Amino acid sequence: MDPIFQFSDEELNDGGGDPREELHTNPSEEDQEEVENLAPAIPPQEEVENLAPTIPPRQIPELLIARIVALVPRCQYPKLSLISRAFFRVISSPELYIRRLQLGLTEPVLYALIGFPYSYERFSRWHILNLNISESLREVPTFPPMYPGSSVVTFGYNMYVIGGLNGFNHPVSTVFVLDCRFHAWDNLPSMHRARYRAAAGVIDRKIYVIGGCERPHAYDGWIEVFDVDNGVWSTVPDPSHYNSNMPGGGFVTSVVMQDRIYILDALCALVYEPRQGTWQSLGLESSTLMDFWRQPCCVIEDLLYSFDVLCVLKHPIVVFDPVEMVWNPVKGLDDGLPYLRYSVCQMANVGGKLMVLATSNTIYNDTWCIEITLERREGGEIWGTVDSKEIVLISGTSPSIDLSCSVTV
Description:
8 helices; F-box/kelch-repeat_ARATH; 35% strand; 4-stranded antiparallel beta sheet; 8-stranded mixed beta sheet; Kelch_1; Neuraminidase; globular; mainly beta; disordered N terminus; F-box/kelch-repeat protein At2g29780; 3 domains; Kelch-typ_b-propeller
């Protein structure tokens, strides 16, 4: 995929105009001030005469720009790209992100799929979340809308969107990749079979896709694997008898823990070990895992987090240990969480922190983002601390938050 720089107009206009216009030679006062803030403060007037002349932004060497911009948070790039053509070229270059990786300056960024049930839009739209800046939740119009029932996995700075339903009872085999550095996307080779609500996970630089289709035979390509390095799909022989209990062969959800793919079916929970090609039915443990495992879930340090909607364990968020095979409450959050609709929300692992994106359980339908730091204390208890909570979206109607996931850029 060509690394084309494709920040949205909303992102660009957040700091001025379009870099394709004359702003790159005549930056606005706001953009000029932002560049000047990167330099040391100007000394008193009597000392100015002894200073060397200020270099205009368009004359700064690109190598120096690259070294400076690599240290700046990713959310500021749309504004910085307006300063000059040189800034634009640096920010649209893959080499910038290679340098950020080498310096250990990559950042986790949260993306969410949000729809508005009473709007004219047929599909939900992708949004990017950057806390602590104005308009922290913004649409990414350069990303294509996602088919309902698609499976999404992340690897590096990419999101892979797999299958889904295009029209009534019409699953597709299409796969596309979203490049979160430049907000560009491209098609990948299609799968051998069309799939809807398939289980998926990334292990050893390979994307495993399971089910999401009917399985009349054992060796029919029910499992496929995509090699990220060579870009090729292949089917995985699977003589097991496991299948989905849901219509169409789909699953409720899936996660990766301990290099295994845990799959939530309508009636049971399954575990697939791709390195050995083996399956495990959890038996009695399956009912335990299903007690609180719901579609809004995420994995942090090989522990599964989900919502206890009825607060059976007297806390709204619970955690599952796949070694002990037991659910425990996440303590310490009782007074720190807003009154939210936990049945229609999402959670994600963002740099080791738990991020909750949910709509308030009030008439205002405000959408909140809550950032939670997790801590394992003596005795194995998990405690959470709310680092921040802010309203990121105000809407007259209750939005549907269909998915949230984190990408490192």
